[in-house]
Amino acid sequence: MEAYVQMTGFVGGDVELRHDDPPVASFRLASTPRFRRGDTWADGPTTWMSVTCFRALAENAVVSIRRGDPVVVVGRLRTSVYEKDGQVVERLTLEATSVGHDLNRGIAVFRRADRTAGEDSGGTAERVVDPGPETTAETAPKARPETAGPPAAQVTGPTKESAPDGSSVVPPATTRDRAPRSRSKAA
Predict the structure, then answer these.
(1) pLDDT at 186 over 80
(2) What is the pLDDT of residue 148?
(3) How far apart, in whole angstroms, are the C-alpha atoms of residue 88 and residue 176?
(4) Which residues, including other chains, have CB under 8 Å from residue 111's CB and lie 6 or more apart?
(5) Burial bucket for residue 179 (CB in 10 Å: 0-12, 13-18, 19+)
(6) Residue 172 CB neighbour total at 10 angstroms
(7) Phi, psi for 59 (deg, rounded to 5)
(8) Cα 46 to Cα 9, 40, 49, 148, 166, distances in angstroms
């Protein structure tokens, strides 16, 4: 029997990609429960979980997720047992089947990753991601600080504009364009 779980939280560090066969990405997820204590909200203890992604999910996660992003992760709990300094260590990890941004904490726009012919036939082909519409300072939504997340987290939202008839219109959301990062580490 498989133990499937769903966790929400914030990405605690950069997503690391290993170009194994299959590709493997991993990151740490921090989940802190909030509860009412009298008239105020209080934070409970933070649970840290290692998340592992494989294949296309790994490649997509590394270009889509950054430190501080609120995410929802669904997957199977796995326990790895190893020996370190003469003691047996058990480590619990979450093997992700799905990862996505938590839309309770912000907005996101989905862009489908283009598939190449080699990928469909089982070959190793490079994935090409549609860059989407270009965002400029004039078209980018105004950023506002996230109230429930870590200080570095930002949520973007649409701004109201006036239509020709004088009514308010909310323009379609744009995405945060993310430049690809170098995955190689200096020796």
Answers:
(1) no
(2) 43
(3) 44
(4) 129, 130, 132, 175
(5) exposed
(6) 7
(7) -65, -40
(8) 10, 18, 10, 14, 48
Would you give the DSSP letter of residue 124? -
Which residues are paired to 83 by β-bridges?
A: 88
In this prediction, residue 80 carries a pLDDT of: 86
Name the E strands within 57-146: 70-84, 87-101, 113-114, 128-129, 143-145
CA distance 110 to 35: 32
pLDDT attached to residue 1: 73
Looking from the CA of 62 toward its CB, the CA atoms found within 13 Å total 21
pLDDT at 17 over 80: yes
Please check whether residue 55 is in contact with residue 23, taking contact to mean a CB–CB distance below 8 angstroms. yes
Q: Which residue has the higher pLDDT, 27 or 125?
A: 27
User: What's residue 164's pLDDT?
Assistant: 52
Task: Pick the more confident residue, 109 or 148.
Answer: 109
